[in-house]
């Protein structure tokens, strides 16, 4: 094995990549500047500081001890015990992703886990526990590894056996013993925190690898089959892990993990802000759920059917639920085997799906600003700065019956506002055919929709004719590929991306838009040293 | 109402238990503290009273406090320094408000890509936790109680209470959860309860012991996180085996929505102080950064408080004023409840409590922190009421004033950013 070229200290103190790039709206957002007469020409490739770094060893991701997210806990309990009880604890947000790596559990959070554990156990019929022997086998050999992500052994097993016996003594039934044991397991640090011991060379053990893969791909703990692979030493090499991740992606359980990613990436939680969006609530639960699910299924379908990132911005094949197919109306051209083809003149993949468009709007009012901001921030990783303090965000009064676009163009009358809003609102204008609920519209206030926009990014002016052209532009931009890889890495590792793997991530970004690129990047990162190595001090 | 029984109720000693004596002599009054937060500062021209220190008229925003005017000391002139090279408005002053210490900008747990900045948690300890840490063991069921509504996920902009550097305490978010947490524990001694307590203790002992079964070595920071977790579990065990409060617990809160939630939390805060469950409460309304709560009952149906605070139009400023005025109404309701709740030592809870209301900003519009509104409230034995005081200094003077009220009378500075000394003059009695 070649010597590692990454010192631990360098990794620890490494600033984020995010800090190394871009500042302000007027910074050169697209690099290098394309020629004006060929607006979408990416120009010559920039000199590559990563040349010759391909063989360098990746350092481990410096992930602190992670506590499971609320959704991880709830989903694991649902899988293992078959009950769903909402867990009243909050998560930390890093960038946009939930990841509990720094907050400590305080007294009210402990109380919340405690009350929740008792509520879960109170719902269990515990039919497995009519006899003490079979009950213990079930608890300690089946259930415990599903919660603790590794076998229950040694002193810890003895502790749980003793707890079981105490419960049986007091309650005079094995069922009571099981209740005590399960209440303890549900709030045990062995369940709530990842435990990631490393072997010589810094590698995670098989259970540690299984746990990371499962939280990433399935949004919950490993199942018995994955734990069996860990036990058998079948998660030890890059090739083994890559093969397993491919299977995990195809497994229907990956819907849960990808849901967590896509929902947080694209801010789809906005669809469930019932207080702010009575118009969405009025659509009814079935349709809203279908709208929230569609972008996730679109992403998953692309990932498992050999597509690249660029395809996400153009695909018209969607696994929309029946309520959403009805909502699309005439735009849904045909449905075969659960896959619906949408009108290629009106829908252009992920960004124009009804759920994404509805999430990026205000109640009863489409928001080009929100939509443009989301493209810049989430898809390009170049968020404009917040409005400077003391600058009025009030638009001058608009003429009655003015369109959204006519009102927002008043942003441009003020030079301070215009510096950011020309790009933000300009990108947003290309989505003007989609109303606040993601429906196609040809008119607003009786006036025809205008969805072509000219905006400056950096020093270059672009003219884009509608969401289709914007999607085509985005699909071809290297920044979009780089941003996607950064987003996925943040989600998958639970920490912001780190500078020492910048070249590695650039390489992934080049690969993500090739055929099968999405699956390739997911598999490649999950099986990399960055993920398979631990961070033990 | 009598005192909460404080004697430890040991399961094995049950047989020796006798019905609790009634007619105890009135105990020595215990001083109490309540910290209150509302977001995004104020609009000064509509907040600032007119007149002199002792003869003044309340303005539009503070007008709901008219009935409590004699119990108020309104402070105009304290700044809220943040002590870092860069300033992210809202976020960097939330951790300093009650700690007087800066946010940790060397850490990179949280990042704001729009500001190109990363940061961690606050580096100080909030005064409530500092005071509670020095209470004698078993002083009360809860060393402190944190209540709130719509306080968001775990983030430096959403947490104001620090138990230790980088270790926050989250408020109990919402009255329903607060009620079950505060008023559903405690035992009276029936066999079924003894059995339940035995089960819970056995379960929690295993939970704590499981920390010792970790296989991986830990960084000091992660070790501290697990230690804090273990401490919190042990505190839970103590609460579970504490006696049930001898006061009448309040009923389960009903009719809770975003308009009523803080009032229902105020009911529970007053009850908790009155029942002797704690001596220190903090209450947090919404979050410091980008709070976009809607106020449909005030006609604020879109865009929310934070967005409005950047809007200089007359209509928006009027809406903002009505939001700040509504906050005053919530604060007034809290004072109503504290004044109406008997204290175990006689008089009302408010007679023994210093209430301190602050915000993370002075002006939402400009993110100004050179003057941040603070209001003190308390009974006649606590503060010199009916005062409107123009002062100069930093939030530390308010913090030290609160420390003096709670008996820390030799403390003159608090927090790493404190460059002054002593309490505010003429506030405490």
Explain this structure to me?
The complex is a heterodimer of chains A (537) and B (429). Chain A has 537 residues and is mainly α. Chain A has helices at residues 8-13, 70-81, 107-122, 132-148, 154-171, 174-187, 189-192, 206-218, 224-231, 238-250, 254-265, 278-281, 285-304, 309-312, 322-328, 354-359, 368-379, 404-408, 415-429, 466-476, 478-493, 502-512, 517-526, 529-532, and strands at 93-94, 97-98, 317-318, 332-336, 339-342, 361-362, 365-366, 443-444, 447-448, 452-457, 460-465. Chain A has three domains: 24-55 and 365-388 and 398-476, no CATH class; 70-192, no CATH class; 204-312 and 481-537, no CATH class. In chain A, the strands form five sheets. Chain A has a three-stranded antiparallel β-sheet with strand order 3-5-4. In chain A, strands 1-2 form a two-stranded antiparallel sheet. In chain A, a hairpin with a 2-residue loop joins β4 and β5. Chain A is globular, with a radius of gyration of 25 Å. The two termini of chain A are 22 Å apart. Chain B has two domains: 28-185 and 245-405, Alkaline Phosphatase, subunit A, CATH 3.40.720; 189-243. Helix content of chain B is 29%, strand content 14%. Chain B is built from ten helices and 14 strands. Chain B has an eight-stranded mixed β-sheet, sandwiched between helices. A two-stranded antiparallel sheet of chain B has the order 2-3. A two-stranded antiparallel sheet of chain B has the order 5-6. Chain B is globular and about 65 Å long. The interface between A and B is large, with 75 and 79 residues.
């Amino acid at each position: 094995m070649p010597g590692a070229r990454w010192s631990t200290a360098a990794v620890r103190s490494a600033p984020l990549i995010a800090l190394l790039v871009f500042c302000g709206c007027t910074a050169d957002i697209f690099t290098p500047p394309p020629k004006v007469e060929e607006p979408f020409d990416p120009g010559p490739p920039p000199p590559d500081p990563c040349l010759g770094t391909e063989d360098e060893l990746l350092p481990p991701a410096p992930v602190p001890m992670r506590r499971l997210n609320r959704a991880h806990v709830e989903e694991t309990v649902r899988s293992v015990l078959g009950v769903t009880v909402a867990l009243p604890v909050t998560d930390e947000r890093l960038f946009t992703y939930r990841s509990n790596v720094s907050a400590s559990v305080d007294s009210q959070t402990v109380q919340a886990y405690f009350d929740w554990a008792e509520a879960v156990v109170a719902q269990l019929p515990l039919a497995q526990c009519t006899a003490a022997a079979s009950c213990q086998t079930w608890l300690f050999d089946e259930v415990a590894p599903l919660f603790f992500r590794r076998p229950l052994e040694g002193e810890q097993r003895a502790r749980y056996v003793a707890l079981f016996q105490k419960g049986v003594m007091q309650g005079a039934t094995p069922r009571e013993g099981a209740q005590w044991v399960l209440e303890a397991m549900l709030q045990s640090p062995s369940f709530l925190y990842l435990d990631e011991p490393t072997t010589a060379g810094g590698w995670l053990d098989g259970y540690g690898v299984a746990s990371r893969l499962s939280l990433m791909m399935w949004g919950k703990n490993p199942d018995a089959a994955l734990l069996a692979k860990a036990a058998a030493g079948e998660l030890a090499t890059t090739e083994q892990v890559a093969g397993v991740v491919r299977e995990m992606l195809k497994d229907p359980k990956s819907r849960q993990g990808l849901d967590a990613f896509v929902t947080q990436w694209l801010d789809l939680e906005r669809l469930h802000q019932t207080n702010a969006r009575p118009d969405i609530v009025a659509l009814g639960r079935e349709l809203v759920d279908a709208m929230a699910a569609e972008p996730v299924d679109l992403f998953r379908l692309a990932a498992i059917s050999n597509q690249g990132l660029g395809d996400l911005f153009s695909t018209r094949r969607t696994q929309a639920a029946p309520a959403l197919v009805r909502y699309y109306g005439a735009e849904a051209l045909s449905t075969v085997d659960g896959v619906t083809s949408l009108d290629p003149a009106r829908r252009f993949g992920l960004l124009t799906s009804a759920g994404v468009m509805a999430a990026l709007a205000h109640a009863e009012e489409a928001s080009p600003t929100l939509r443009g901001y989301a493209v810049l921030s989430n898809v390009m990783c170049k968020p404009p700065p917040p409005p400077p303090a003391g600058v009025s965000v009030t638009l001058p009064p608009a003429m009655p019956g003015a369109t959204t676009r006519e009102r927002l163009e008043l942003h441009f009358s003020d030079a301070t506002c215009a510096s950011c809003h020309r790009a933000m609102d300009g990108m947003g204008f290309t989505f003007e055919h989609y109303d606040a609920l993601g429906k196609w519209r040809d008119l607003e206030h009786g006036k025809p929709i205008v969805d072509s926009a000219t905006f400056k990014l950096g020093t270059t002016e672009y003219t884009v004719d509608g969401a289709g052209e914007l999607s085509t532009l985005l699909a071809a931009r290297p920044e979009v590929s780089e941003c996607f890889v950064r987003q996925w890495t943040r989600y998958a590792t639970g920490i912001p991306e780190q500078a020492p793997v910048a070249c590695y991530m650039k390489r992934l970004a080049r690969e993500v838009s090739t055929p099968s690129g999405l699956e390739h990047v997911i598999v490649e990162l999950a099986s990399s040293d960055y993920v398979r190595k631990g961070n033990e001090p | 109402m009598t005192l909460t029984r404080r004697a430890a109720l040991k399961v094995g000693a049950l047989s020796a238990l006798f019905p609790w004596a009634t007619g105890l002599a009135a105990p020595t009054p215990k001083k109490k503290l309540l910290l209150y937060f509302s977001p995004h500062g104020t609009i000064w021209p509509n907040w600032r009273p007119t007149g002199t220190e002792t003869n003044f008229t309340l303005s539009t925003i503070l007008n709901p406090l008219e009935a409590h005017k004699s119990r108020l000391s309104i402070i105009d002139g304290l700044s809220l320094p943040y002590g870092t090279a860069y300033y992210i408005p809202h976020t960097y002053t939330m951790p300093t408000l009650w700690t007087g210490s800066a946010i940790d900008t060397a850490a990179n747990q949280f990042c704001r890509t729009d500001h190109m900045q990363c940061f961690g948690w606050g580096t100080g300890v909030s005064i409530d936790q500092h005071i509670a840490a020095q209470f004698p063991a078993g002083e009360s069921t809860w060393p402190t109680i944190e209540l709130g509504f719509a306080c968001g996920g775990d983030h430096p902009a959403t947490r104001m209470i620090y138990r230790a550097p980088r270790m926050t305490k989250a408020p109990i978010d919402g009255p329903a959860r607060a009620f079950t947490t505060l008023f559903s524990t405690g035992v009276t001694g029936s066999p079924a309860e003894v059995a339940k307590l035995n089960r819970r203790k056995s379960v929690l002992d295993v939970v704590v012991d499981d920390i010792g079964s970790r296989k991986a070595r830990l960084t000091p920071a992660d070790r501290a996180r697990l230690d804090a977790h273990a401490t919190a579990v042990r505190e839970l065990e103590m609460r579970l085996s504490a006696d049930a409060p001898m006061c009448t617990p309040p009923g389960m809160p009903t009719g809770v929505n975003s308009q009523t939630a803080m009032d229902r939390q105020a009911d529970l805060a007053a009850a908790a102080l009155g029942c002797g469950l704690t001596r220190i409460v903090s209450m947090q309304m919404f979050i410091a950064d980008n709070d976009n709560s809607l106020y449909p009952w005030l006609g604020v149906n879109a865009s929310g408080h934070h967005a409005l605070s950047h809007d200089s139009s007359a209509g928006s400023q009027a809406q903002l004023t009505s939001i700040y005025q509504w906050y005053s109404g919530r604060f007034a309701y809290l004072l109503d409840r504290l004044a109406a709740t008997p204290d175990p030592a006689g008089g009302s809870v408010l007679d023994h409590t210093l209430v301190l209301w602050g915000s993370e900003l002075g002006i939402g519009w400009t993110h100004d922190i050179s003057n941040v509104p603070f209001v003190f409230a308390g009974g006649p034995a606590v503060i010199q009421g009916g005062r409107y005081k123009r002062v100069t200094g930093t939030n530390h003077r308010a913090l030290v004033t609160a420390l003096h009220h709670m008996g820390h009378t030799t403390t003159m500075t608090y927090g790493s950013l404190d460059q002054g000394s002593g309490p505010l003059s003429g506030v405490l009695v």
